[in-house]
Every structure is written in structure tokens, then in C-alpha cells.
Design a protein that fits this description.
Blueprint: H1 3-15, H2 18-25, H3 29-43, E1 48-51, E2 54-57, H4 59-86, E3 89-96, H5 98-101, H6 104-115, E4 119-125, H7 131-139, E5 145-148, E6 157-164, E7 167-172, E8 183-184, E9 192-196, H8 201-212, E10 218-223, H9 226-234, E11 240-243, E12 253-260, E13 265-272, H10 279-292
Parallel strand pairs: 3-4, 3-5, 8-12, 9-10
Antiparallel strand pairs: 1-2, 5-13, 6-13, 7-11, 7-12
Helix pairs in contact: 1-2, 1-3, 1-4, 2-3
């Protein structure tokens, strides 16, 4: 059975549309149709049926997709493992949210390279910076691991948690809270706040803190980036509750420890279950566990 045809089938099964699948695969729609018909002819069973302007898998198609995914995963993992082993090391594909990717993840990369005899190389990507996007990239095998603020589906991902920097409250200089040594979350309620956008994993963490005091902030503005939040606070648009960051020291801000409720936070390192990774990637996973889980 043609290997390319199997990959075509997998993409078509995901998109359920010949035109979109052909565009993603950079082939013509007739070539895609021919590839699927060849597979169906060899199997002696229909894999797709029409569903309006789209298509959907038949019960035979669902079963075949399960087999194809498993087979391609094994083939891709084995191919990469052989290539990496021949180079006495390998490339490790990492993803990280920005707050972890500025210091923690680079430190782990550098320390691992210093203690291993393998010729290890890294690629560090942020996708769009959201935990959900990073986890999706791991699920699709575009990344080996990802560092995120929330865990993925336990049925799909193997993860472990670790402690990370706590939340702080940042205010403009001269703000009524800026003269304090620390702040309780209750103290922030009278003031407008700059918040993470709802699509951010950190927004869920901040909302969870407010839920502990049975309150909600007065949202003056929402944005996706903590650096933008810091700039808006420095310009006097409000205050913010967010993870501590060295960036804050370079802006006209007051950074106040958050004391109540307990702002202890967790982060996660995740990988897809059932994937055979090269030795270098497996060793890096174990190294991170030893360094982060104490």
C-alpha cells in the first residue's frame, strides 16, 4: 500500500473535505481522489461517505484511520530515532509559553547540554504563546514536549507539574497601593484592572484566584501578552495581577508580592502518550523531572 496515499487518507480524514485536504497536501484534488479510490479498492470497503458538501468516515474508515495513525506514528518515530542515533544525539523540539521560555527553559537546555555526552540540539518555539496551541503541536508531533500553564487531556498527554514563580500585583508609580509592602487580592478590588484575554491559560489561573475570595475584578482592558499588560499599567490604565517577570524592573511600576490567597502556581511539562522518542529527548525529559520536581 502506497505510503503517501496513507498520509493523504489521514489528512482527508481529519479535514473531511477533499478541497481543503488537497490544498493542505499541495496536490490536486483529482490526485487525492485517485489515492483514496486506490486504497478503497485494495481494502474492498468504502472509507468515506457524503455529508452535504463535505464527507465523513464510514465505520470502515474509522477503523482504518485508527490503524493508519498507529502505523504512521511507529514509522515516523522509528525513522527519526534511527536518524538521530546515527548523529550520536539529536534534535529536541520544545515549545513553551513566554513566561517560562525567557529563563527557566533556556536554563534547562543549557544545563542539560553541559552534563550530557550526546550531541544535543534544541529548537524552542512558542507557537502563538498559548498553552492550548502548544499542546496541539505536541499532539500533532510538531513538538516533542511543551511547557505550559495548564495540563492537557490525560488520555492524550503524559505530564508532570512543578512550581513556578508566584503572582504579583503591579501598579503605576504613585498608585494608592504602591506604598505597601505586599497586597492581598481583596485589596485590588476597588481598582480597574488590566487582565489577560480569555483565551490565555493565565486568565484561568487569575480567575481561579479571585474565585477563592468570591469576587471578580473590574476589567478595564484585556490583552494576550503580559508585556503589553505591564505597559498599560505603567501608562496608568489600571493595575494587574500576573506572574512576576524581570521585565517589570525596567518599567515605571511598583511590584508588590501577593500574599492572600496563596498565589502558589503550577506549570506543566507534557508529551504525547505512546510516542517513541530518541534517546536524547527521553534523557532530557528525565533530566527535567529531576530538576523541576523537588
Amino acid at each position: 500500500m502506497n505510503l503517501d496515499h496513507l498520509r493523504y487518507f489521514e489528512v482527508l480524514a481529519q479535514l473531511e473535505h477533499y478541497g481543503k485536504a488537497a490544498e493542505k497536501l499541495h496536490i490536486s484534488q483529482p490526485n487525492l481522489t485517485y489515492a483514496v479510490s486506490q486504497i478503497e479498492q485494495e481494502l474492498g470497503a468504502p472509507l468515506f461517505e457524503k455529508a452535504g458538501r463535505s464527507i465523513r468516515l464510514t465505520r470502515y474508515g474509522h477503523e482504518f484511520l485508527r490503524v493508519v495513525k498507529s502505523s504512521l506514528d511507529v514509522l515516523d518515530s522509528g525513522t527519526r530515532a534511527v536518524r538521530e542515533a546515527s548523529q550520536n544525539g539529536g534534535l529536541i523540539l520544545l515549545g513553551s509559553i513566554r513566561t517560562l521560555g525567557t529563563t527557566l527553559v533556556p536554563d534547562l537546555m543549557r544545563n542539560f547540554q553541559a552534563q550530557t555526552d550526546l550531541d544535543v540540539r534544541f529548537q524552542l518555539r512558542s507557537e502563538n504563546g498559548f498553552s492550548a496551541s502548544l499542546l496541539k503541536a505536541v499532539e500533532e508531533k510538531r513538538l516533542d514536549f511543551c511547557f505550559t500553564s495548564s495540563p492537557g487531556n490525560a488520555a492524550v498527554f503524559e505530564s508532570f507539574s512543578f512550581h513556578r514563580k508566584p503572582f504579583v500585583v503591579i501598579t503605576p508609580l504613585g498608585h494608592p497601593l504602591s506604598s505597601r509592602q505586599s497586597v492581598a487580592l481583596q485589596d485590588t478590588l476597588p481598582y480597574p484592572q488590566i487582565c489577560f484575554a480569555s483565551c490565555s491559560g493565565l486568565r484561568k489561573n487569575v480567575d481561579a484566584l479571585f474565585s477563592q475570595i468570591h469576587a471578580a475584578p473590574t476589567v478595564a482592558m484585556e490583552t494576550e501578552e503580559d508585556a503589553v499588560i505591564a505597559g498599560l499599567v505603567a501608562s496608568g490604565f489600571g493595575i494587574a495581577v500576573l506572574p512576576d517577570d524581570p521585565l517589570f524592573q525596567s518599567l515605571p511600576l511598583t511590584v508588590l508580592p501577593l500574599t492572600s490567597p496563596d498565589p502558589g502556581r503550577m506549570a506543566y511539562l507534557s508529551r504525547r502518550r505512546g510516542i517513541c522518542l530518541p534517546d536524547a529527548a527521553e534523557q532530557f525529559w528525565q533530566f527535567c523531572q529531576k530538576q523541576l520536581v523537588r
